[in-house]
Design goal:
The chain has about 170 residues and is mostly helical. The protein is built from 6 helices and 2 strands; from the N terminus they run H-H-H-H-E-E-H-H.
Length: about 170
């Protein structure tokens, strides 16, 4: 004998009149969870970074790698992956591509022959300098309308959130 279907818990099509709010509205805005808003903002920022750097032929993760090598030359692959917030596998691909393009160079570690230290090449330093100018303009646009003290509060909060995570 066939059982009647209980439709109270059935999946239904969404009401087409109920649209997902735009970014910045409802739960995608000030009423949203911090974590979701951070992820949403990071995605939007990455999109803008990719557009800003596209004609230079570098991606946002490649820029992150160059920025970390510019600030901390001589990092190993493992240290660079942690600093650039990339998986070791992703970093290996990025390093191979940047090395092939002549943007970075590998040098032997002074005391451990298995470790290769990475540095920007002269070509990499020039490319990073050009990309950095563009990213600084993007950052200025992002911070427009906020005072220096307000920007410091946001930076301090973001740094504190990051410092509370493993491997940070």
């Amino acid at each position: 004998m066939a059982m009647p279907i209980d439709r109270r818990h059935a999946i239904t099509r969404p009401d087409p009149k109920q649209l997902i709010p735009r970014a910045g509205e409802g739960k995608r805005g000030e009423d949203g969870y911090f974590g979701y808003l951070l992820r949403q903002a990071a995605g939007a920022y990455r999109y803008r970074m990719e557009a800003t750097l596209a004609d230079l032929g570098i991606t946002q993760p490649q820029f992150a790698v160059m920025a970390m090598l510019g600030a901390y030359p001589g990092l190993s692959n493992a240290d660079l992956a942690r600093a650039a917030l990339l998986t070791p596998q992703t970093l290996s691909v990025i390093v191979a591509n940047l090395e092939k393009a002549g943007t970075i160079v590998k040098r032997r570690h002074a005391t451990n022959e298995r470790i290769r230290q990475l540095e920007l090449s002269a070509k990499g330093e020039a490319l990073y300098a050009e990309a950095r100018v563009r990213v600084r303009l993007l950052e200025a646009d992002l911070a427009a309308g906020y005072s220096e003290p307000e920007q410091k509060i946001v930076r301090r909060w973001l740094a504190a959130v990051t410092a509370g995570t493993p491997e940070s």
